[in-house]
Structure prediction request, 166 residues.
Amino acid sequence: MLQWYAVHTQVHAESKANWHLRNQGFATYLPCYLKRVRHARQARERARPLFPRYLFLAMDIAAARWRAIRSTIGVVELVSHGDRPAPVPQTVIDEIRAREDARGLVVLPPAPAFGPGERVQINHGALTGQTGIFECVSDADRVVVLLELLGRQVRIRLPVDAVAAA
Prediction:
């Protein structure tokens, strides 16, 4: 039965390890995303591994020669519990693939343009016009803001698009 496993790679060798593992007949998955990279005063978007130094490999542990994976070019080791590779649940792989766009790149939620402790203004909803202090990102769609209400600080959760830098 095919299961997914995580492969720990050498630094910046995810693609090399991926290529060599595929040449050995293994099914691999190297999720990538677009990252803005600056070089020589130019900013470009480049595909980069979602999990630096890791990729996923599907194999039947009972039938595959999995110990040979450790001697593959670019590979450090299989992520293991004791002496056996630790399987990655299929749902994890499915959730990552569900976030891919047409080019096969994982789409990440946009990061807020402000950091913890910065003043923000609420632009939508019942608290429009109020200013508060950005605390953190709550989840993929919401942020936590501290507002001064009724003489005390109140922690509220708002949609990311309802808040802008003050």
Observations:
- The domain at 3-98 is CATH 3.30.70.940 (Alpha-Beta Plaits).
- The longest helix spans residues 14-23.
